[in-house]
Known about the structure:
Elements: E1 7-10, H1 16-26, H2 32-44, E2 48-55, E3 58-69, E4 76-85, H3 94-108, E5 111-116, H4 123-131
Parallel strand pairs: 4-5
Antiparallel strand pairs: 1-2, 2-3, 3-4
Amino acid sequence: MSPRAVQLRPIRRQDAPRLAVLLGQLGYPADTAAVDERLDYWLEDPLSYLIGADSGHQLVGVAGMHVCPLLEVTGRSGRLLALVVDDRCRGQGVGRSLVTAVEELAREAGCALTEVTSSRRRTSAHEFYRRLGYADTCGAKARFVKHLRGGAGS
């Protein structure tokens, strides 16, 4: 498959079953009902974007981005929250196409930067992001997470 064989488009509610499969491949198993529930807040949020990649009328990839306003500098930040390409389609330019589309949306939204976090065990993903011009700033900044009781993921 060439990158030209992939069509990018917004994610739709009817994509929930295929999104569940892709999230499972990413290591986040979910059933269709759970993904459908998540789409409730994703599709209604004007600062959140879900881009799908279709090949042969099948969803083969997805990228999710949220735009956050910055206070410390003028502008906004685009945060790539999820990127997954079907196992069978990796290494064929689908991920690059999705990241390029996310970056364009971020520019249009007034973002000064885009960022992504990735588990340390995903070394091939890290190389992918480096090839696209992303720098690992983990040595310069710390990331702290606190799970809230009653919130998502608790």
